[in-house]
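Final report, results section. Input specification for complex C-07:
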Amino acid sequence: MLRRKFLKILTSGFAVFATGLLTPIKVLAEWNQAAFSAKDFDTAINAYFPNQQIHESDQINIEVYDEIENGAVVPVKVKTNLKNVKTITIFADKNPNPLIANFNLTPSCSGFISTRIKVSEPSNIIVIVNDNDKLHMTKKFIIVHENGCG
Amino acid sequence: MASTIRLKTKIRDDVTTVRAIIRHPMETGFRIDDETGERIPEHYIKKIIAKHNSNIIFSCDWSRAVSKNPYLSFMFSNSKIGDKIEIAWFDTKDDTDSLEATIE
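Structure output:
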């Protein structure tokens, strides 16, 4: 009995230790393989937001050039006035893997992200914002002359 | 070795803007090496974690379609001069790097 109790303490202690140690691995495990490997937009979106309704919104602003020479470097800035933003997710519907990037925000973050992405051909840049209530979507069509994914 | 991460912060009232550039090839796995004719293996950052005074405030899940030498900017409130900000990345080869800076 005593031995069992001791083992229990030992294993629970180890569990706490291991949790701290494994953080990066745990974090990487949360990366959504199915959604990131999806080869078309509908599959990607169903894998990332399963069984969830997506609503068109005018409350998301996508700053991106209408036309760009080199698809390897496409600056994208997303701003939203929506409150309690939990995630901002970027897709390019014609890319070999349409899901490009997801950003997880905490309550102290402003509704803003800026990055640079690769776009393979003229595509809709689609941004989905989860404000902890529902999914909001805005898209913007851009022309790309040189494939940025090749 | 020099860090792969360059980190800049700007604070206005209590809102900090973080801008980071990471030196990383972000290889898609689709490109062909012109000299050997072989496919260049994929090698890209999958995860970024940002901490404010040791608490995670922001994180990213990335695909191969984030540009080479990635640029990232985000903003957060409830910060002040002297606070710590840390950025860490994790890639497909289990490589990682991190950098801590002080908001000034």
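Chain B touches chain A through 34 residues (CB under 8 Å). Residues 40 and 65 of chain B are 15 Å apart (CA to CA). This concludes the modelling results for the funded period.
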